[in-house]
Design a protein that fits this description.
The structure is a single chain. The chain has helices at about 40-45, 115-120, 120-135, 150-160, 175-185, 195-210, 225-230, 255-260, 270-275, 275-290, 310-315, and strands at about 1-5, 15-20, 30-40, 65-70, 85-90, 95-100, 105, 140-145, 165-170, 190, 215-220, 235-240, 265, 300-305, 325-329. The protein is α/β, with parallel strands linked by helices. The strands form three sheets. Strands 3, 4, 5, 6, 7, 14 and 15 form a seven-stranded mixed sheet that branches. Strands 10-9-8-11-12-13 form a six-stranded parallel sheet, with helices on both faces. Strands 1-2 form a two-stranded antiparallel sheet. The radius of gyration is 20 Å and the shape is globular. Bound molecules: NADP nicotinamide-adenine-dinucleotide phosphate (NAP). The site of NADP nicotinamide-adenine-dinucleotide phosphate has 30 residues, from helix 1, helix 3 and helix 4.
Length: about 325
């Protein structure tokens, strides 16, 4: 089978597509013939050796995908060869096949294309856990999503909308990204590159929420943006730290938290795969149901052959993806 192989941690261009032996399932495992793999920002961090989990070398990157079960190991129940599944893995979806524990596979609705199954995985799971599990979102909440044109951001916008947020505001970089964020469902967008962001963001969020402020902030961006976002928050607001796409890890001034009873909480979604697999299954079925009801539409910008993985990752790294890129193994 074909697989993108990382033999040494480093720049994404140093990985190559190679022929490797097909995997066989062990007890509790399944082999899936992959028809689509989603490209995500953390893939770059994993390949560069900058991610919290470093796979043993050599390895294939890729955390999400969809395909057809082709073999099952001893003790697997609930899945059979021929089933269409979406899946999440620590790594390994940039390949024509993957072996993984059956727990990490989610049966897809019959009418769901593979590229959609792949795109409704990692970032939608992250957004769902951020909004519901960490931020205790309820219908009527006002939500500020930072990086609203990105993977986690646009999924958070769509889910906040689908789950009954009263106002969804997207923090973005530039006009093109503002369009994407509006297409995902934002009522308002704010350009995070504006002068005096600390005051400007607060004014914009206040105006969009009738003076109330943001009940929830979803923050996959970090850097100076986090400080400005904290100043937009409503009484008893909840900010979820999801990532640091801006590159800098912010330091939080705790006086903001005291003055408005604000909670700041973190999310490491992949931990839930290990610690709460039933919760991850429940959330995936909820995401699939919302898709079937027409409430979620992943913004797929492009589908590329596996051989163009480096091009896809470069576009994401340089802010030129403008939506999700799907690799077709
Ligand atoms: N905690 C978890 O479980 C979890 C799960 C998934 C992802 N993550 C993390 O979340 C972060 C985002 O992931 P993603 O998949 O959403 O990435 P992405 O698709 O690249 O989106 C990042 C977004 O942030 C914007 N951005 C980057 N730098 C910015 C800045 N200085 N100011 C304002 N906006 C900025 C980007 O705009 P441009 O495109 O214009 O640059 C883009 O809209 C990454 O750090 C990733 O590792 C965490």
């Amino acid at each position: 089978m074909k697989a993108v192989l990382v033999r040494n941690f480093g720049p994404i261009e140093t990985a190559r597509v190679e022929d490797v032996p097909s995997p066989a399932p062990g007890p509790g495992e399944v082999v899936v013939d992959l028809h689509a793999a989603e490209v995500n920002y953390p893939d770059i961090l994993v390949m560069e050796g900058k991610y919290q989990v470093k796979p043993p070398l050599p390895f294939s990157p890729g955390k999400a995908g969809a395909g057809v079960v082709s073999a099952i190991g001893q003790g697997v129940s609930g899945l059979k060869p021929g089933d269409h599944v979406a899946l999440q893995a620590e790594y390994g979806t940039f390949a024509s096949q993957i072996v993984l524990t059956a727990d990490n596979c989610h049966p897809m609705p019959d009418d769901m294309p593979f590229r959609v199954g792949a795109a409704l995985g990692l970032v939608y799971q992250t957004a769902h856990f951020a909004l519901i599990e960490r931020a205790a979102m309820k219908p009527g909440d006002t939500v500020l999503v930072l990086g609203a044109s990105g993977g986690v951001g646009s999924a958070s916008v769509q889910l906040a909308r689908a789950l009954g947020a009263s106002v969804v505001i997207g923090g973005v970089k530039g006009a093109r990204n503002a369009e994407l964020a509006r297409a995902a469902g934002c009522d308002e967008t704010v350009d995070l590159t504006m002068d005096n962001l600390r005051d400007g963001l607060r004014e914009k969020v206040r105006a969009a929420t009738g003076g109330h402020g943001a009940d929830i902030v979803i923050d996959p961006v970090g850097g100076a943006v986090t400080d400005a976002a904290l100043r937009t928050m409503a009484w008893c607001g909840r900010l979820v730290v999801v990532g640091f796409a801006a590159g800098d890890i912010p330091t939080i001034r705790t006086n903001y938290l005291l003055v408005k009873n604000i909670s700041v909480t973190g999310l490491q979604w992949s931990d839930y795969r290990e610690r709460d697999p039933d919760g991850v299954h429940r959330v995936q079925q909820d995401i699939f149901t919302l898709w079937s009801e027409g409430k979620l539409t992943p913004q797929i910008a492009d589908t590329l052959p596996l051989a163009q993985f480096a091009d896809a990752l470069k576009r994401l790294q340089e802010g030129r993806a403008h939506g999700k890129i799907i690799l077709i193994p």
